[in-house]
Amino acid sequence: MKIGFIGAGKMAEAVLSAAIEAGVCAPWDITACDIDAARRKFAEKEYGVIVTDDAAQTARTCKVLLLAVKPQDADALLREARPALTERHLLISIAAGKTLAALKKAAGGKPRLVRVMPNLALLAQEGMSVYCAAKNAKAADKHLVARLFGSAGAVLELPERHFDAVTALSGSGPAFVAYFMRALIEGARALKLPADAAALLAGQTLIGTGIYLQNTGRDTAEFIKAVASPKGTTAAGLAVLDRSDLREVVGRTLAAAAARSAELKRA
Ligand SMILES: NC(=O)c1ccc[n+]([C@@H]2O[C@H](COP(=O)([O-])OP(=O)(O)OC[C@H]3O[C@@H](n4cnc5c(N)ncnc54)[C@H](OP(=O)(O)O)[C@@H]3O)[C@@H](O)[C@H]2O)c1
What we know:
The mean pLDDT is 96. This protein folds into two domains: 3-163, NAD(P)-binding Rossmann-like Domain (Rossmann fold), CATH 3.40.50; 171-266, ProC C-terminal domain-like fold (Orthogonal Bundle), CATH 1.10.3730.10. By secondary structure, it is an alpha/beta fold. The protein contains twelve helices and eight strands. The relative contact order is 0.09. The site of NADP nicotinamide-adenine-dinucleotide phosphate has 27 residues, from helix 1 and helix 4.
């Protein structure tokens, strides 16, 4: 199976490197198409993949295409590749805000379509990728998407109507989590903890708590209660959080991101 990555930026690199590492595809079956000569040189040297700057040629040689350019470049690129696209093509797009309907319009009705919303944690092979498939996609197409993105994290299929919420939570989420991490570091610095130590302790605490809750499926409210012994240190901190409007602020943060996602779709 030959896979063409159209756009070989950081998201494409995260997927292709993890897919090679996991044995989902071999380097010689991958074509990385990018207009940036430096990116092509890097992909060829680092991963041993075939490189080109010709999207139509990529579509002629690869029946699976992963569209990984910025959303504003997607339409022009699909127009360029369109004459080469057939019913035998599977087009997987990670372009934020590009709906299945918009992809169909730009790519023509022929290729089978799957839309994916990954996140930046793909770079640490701990990504969260959510996908939805057009009616013309086959079970094998979904399976391939799950294997490709699953080599760099978790994968979930959801109906496209949830994609604004998905974009807000897992797509933009790494920035929100980093914001909280920054607040933890600043708080620890105010307590005179050295900067390096504060960053390590904050990051490892977020990672460890996330992994534990994910692996056990434990209810977060119950977990918070279990960590906080009566009149202890955690309870003292939680009393401040409980009096704050943090949960409401987080809710508004996600709502704003989802609303922007809906807006971009219409642009
Ligand atoms: N980053 C995230 O957290 C995230 C999350 C979810 C989804 N996404 C989506 O993932 C996609 C890729 O994002 P990214 O962060 O990997 O972007 P990126 O690093 O900028 O990669 C895109 C690459 O495509 C190249 N390109 C542009 N036009 C091209 C063309 N006509 N033919 C071939 N290559 C072309 C770009 O070259 P130039 O730099 O020279 O333009 C760049 O090397 C975007 O659509 C984004 O919405 C990103």
